[in-house]
């Protein structure tokens, strides 16, 4: 009862009505649902209040972010309006650990919410995470394919221009970031056309093949071989021919021994995975 009266007092505060586009009563109604007891949801939503972090637990916002997909699943997409403001508050939290937690689960939330709500409410948050600290970006990168496959084709193509930004990290020694990028690009080959693969993913793959760290290079050889396979099966044969010519030019005829070694390893992967008929390979 005391909590209800407190909420009643807060939502009838005359000062709040001047700052909000909704009246206090409308704002209160936007958080109302009938799936779980309302007092329980109100308690959960109050976890983003900065004063709670000072008096209850400094990690409380992180706990809130961690639980959010579960709460969203319980309430259902029809009650997303109850959580939307809280989600946006957490997505702009000063602590990177809170934003990182959301970045790792945004693909799960997209499945729960469906394509319309994802396009309207999650894509802007996703775009913000792409420009965040590496600790946050890795969460988005690890599930890049899972998120992009849920978007419409036109929206998905917009991200082709941004993929090369993942080659740049705050710390150049963070090679696992580039290894994860190569892993994700293998999965992304199924989402894009032969032309998009050739124009946008090929330069990134070639850059990763010349990486200083061998673990990154080994995954990249697999990426290039899968690219050859995908382009060979495409209706336009020029893409795979151009790609193979570039492999010969860039690596086989490279003045550094490491480049020529890369060519041998790529050839090995292509033959082992049957990416090309043998006459074409020859």
TrEMBL record:
Gene3D superfamilies the record matches: Leucine-rich Repeat Variant
Record bears the keyword Ion transport: no
Domain of life where this protein originates: Eukaryota
Region (Disordered): 11-32
Keywords: Repeat
InterPro entries found in the cross-reference section: ARM-like (IPR011989), ARM-type_fold (IPR016024), PP2A_Regulatory_Subunit_A (IPR051023)
GO cellular component: cytoplasm
Annotated TM spans: none
GO molecular function: protein phosphatase regulator activity
Keyword check for Metal-binding: no
Protein name from the UniProt record: PP4R1 phosphatase
UniProt organism field: Panurus biarmicus (Bearded tit)
């Amino acid at each position: 009862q005391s909590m209800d009266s407190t909420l009643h007092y807060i939502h009838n505060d005359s000062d709040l009505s001047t700052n909000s586009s909704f009246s206090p009563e409308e704002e209160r109604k936007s958080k109302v649902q009938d799936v779980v007891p309302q007092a329980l949801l109100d308690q959960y939503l109050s976890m983003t209040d900065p004063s709670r972090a000072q008096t209850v637990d400094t990690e409380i916002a992180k706990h809130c972010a961690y639980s959010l997909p579960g709460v969203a699943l319980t309430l259902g997409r029809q009650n997303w309006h109850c959580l939307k403001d809280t989600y946006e508050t957490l997505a702009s939290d000063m602590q990177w650990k809170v934003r990182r937690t959301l970045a790792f689960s945004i693909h799960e939330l997209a499945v729960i919410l469906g394509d319309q709500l994802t396009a309207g409410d999650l894509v802007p948050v996703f775009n913000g995470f792409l420009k965040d600290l590496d600790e946050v970006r890795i969460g988005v990168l690890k599930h890049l394919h899972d998120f992009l496959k849920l978007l419409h084709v036109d929206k998905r193509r917009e991200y082709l221009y941004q993929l090369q930004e993942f080659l740049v990290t705050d710390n150049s020694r963070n090679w696992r970031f580039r290894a994860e990028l190569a892993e994700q690009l293998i999965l992304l080959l199924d989402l894009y056309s032969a032309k998009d693969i050739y124009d946008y993913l090929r330069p990134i793959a070639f850059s990763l093949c010349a990486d200083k760290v061998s673990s990154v290079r080994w995954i990249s050889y697999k990426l290039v071989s899968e690219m050859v396979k995908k382009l060979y099966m495409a209706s336009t044969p020029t893409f795979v021919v151009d790609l193979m010519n570039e492999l010969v030019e860039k690596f086989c005829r490279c003045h550094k021994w490491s480049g020529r070694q890369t060519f041998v390893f790529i050839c090995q992967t292509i033959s082992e995975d049957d990416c090309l008929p043998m006459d074409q390979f020859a």
